[in-house]
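// run 5 | inverse folding | seed 20
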């Protein structure tokens, strides 16, 4: 017996003892091919599995079993489709079933991002690709090799970066980037649904004096407290409170008319006037106020969302020149 044959026989006996595989796969391959293939797949750090035309597992390597949340043994005979989140299931079912009609063409599908329903109920995000098993090692019945790459760690970092990219670091409100994105979205919805869209620009009065008197650190704390109050005053989760820049904030109120926006602005004014700064070590008599400008889009009053913001800015300027701690509405 040659050295190679001895090695193959060893591989075969160990893999047969430790590995479950479906009937089609075991009958398709010679024992030596089977052993070598299983050895290769089992040692792979990516999830690898083999399915038939119906999506039934013929083989699952340890990493794939871990990602699917079941044992290699019990996955054999189950369907890949039941592990795919419903948003992906139809796409994969369609691909596999459709392939039956065009068997002669090679199937190379993906990698695509999918959500996997693990057996324990958790959902993980992964890249999944499906490719034909080469004819040289498969038989007349089609088998597909699938690679499942866990994206959980990347997704967690990505989502964290996404939050950071849209959040103002000092106040925790939406930043200017998020404000612009959301405004465009709210604007399109408002035009399409013929619903009003209101915006309030809010600027802290005499904030330079606050900084000069109490220092920038206390100034930062003051901005954080104002942001918190604004957030508490906006009526629903649909609305957006953002830091527009420096000591200026913006509130976007979808489906809110001018009267409702004025109620919100009044509430903000009262709450800010009532603020105390004793918690940051300042005397009880320290008070702040804000000036606010309101503009409301209804019935194509403005041509663009930039024009709406511009109108709110003009109203804000008027509130400042009227003596500050005022609310001015663009009519
Ligand atoms: N502490 C702190 N100060 C800031 C920040 N951003 C802007 N400022 C300050 O806000 C002040 C704004 O000053 P001005 O534009 O003159 O306005 P104001 O003093 O508020 O006066 P009016 O707006 O005219 O009522 C400046 O002193 C800026 O340094 C910040 O992130 N932290």
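// decoded
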């Amino acid at each position: 017996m040659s050295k190679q044959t001895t090695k193959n026989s060893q591989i075969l006996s160990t893999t047969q003892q430790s590995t479950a595989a479906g009937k089609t796969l075991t009958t398709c391959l010679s024992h030596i091919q089977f052993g070598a293939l299983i050895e290769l797949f089992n040692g792979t750090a990516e999830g690898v599995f083999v399915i038939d035309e119906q999506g039934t597992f013929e083989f699952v390597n340890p990493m794939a079993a871990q990602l699917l949340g079941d044992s290699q043994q019990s996955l054999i005979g189950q369907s890949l489709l039941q592990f795919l989140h419903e948003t992906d299931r139809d796409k994969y079912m369609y691909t596999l079933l459709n392939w039956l009609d065009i068997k002669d063409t090679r199937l190379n599908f993906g990698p695509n991002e999918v959500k996997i329903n693990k057996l324990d109920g958790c959902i993980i995000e992964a890249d999944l690709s499906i490719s034909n098993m080469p004819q040289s090692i498969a038989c007349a019945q089609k088998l597909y090799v699938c690679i499942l790459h866990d994206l959980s760690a990347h997704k967690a970092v990505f989502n964290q970066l996404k939050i950071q990219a849209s959040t103002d670091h000092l106040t925790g409100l939406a930043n200017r980037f998020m404000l612009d994105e959301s405004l465009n979205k709210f604007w399109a919805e408002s035009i399409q649904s013929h619903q009003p869209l209101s915006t309030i620009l809010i600027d802290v009065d005499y904030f330079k004096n606050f900084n000069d008197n109490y220092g920038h650190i206390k100034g930062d704390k003051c901005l954080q407290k104002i942001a918190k109050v604004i957030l508490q005053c906006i009526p629903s989760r649909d609305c957006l409170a953002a830091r527009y820049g420096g000591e200026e904030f913006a509130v976007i109120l979808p489906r809110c008319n001018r009267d409702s926006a004025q109620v919100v602005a009044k509430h903000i004014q009262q709450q800010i006037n009532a603020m105390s700064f004793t918690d940051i070590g300042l005397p009880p008599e320290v008070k702040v106020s804000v000036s606010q400008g309101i503009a409301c889009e209804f019935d194509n009053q403005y041509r663009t969302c930039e024009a709406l913001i511009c109108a709110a800015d003009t109203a804000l300027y008027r509130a400042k020149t009227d003596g500050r701690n005022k609310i001015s509405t663009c009519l």
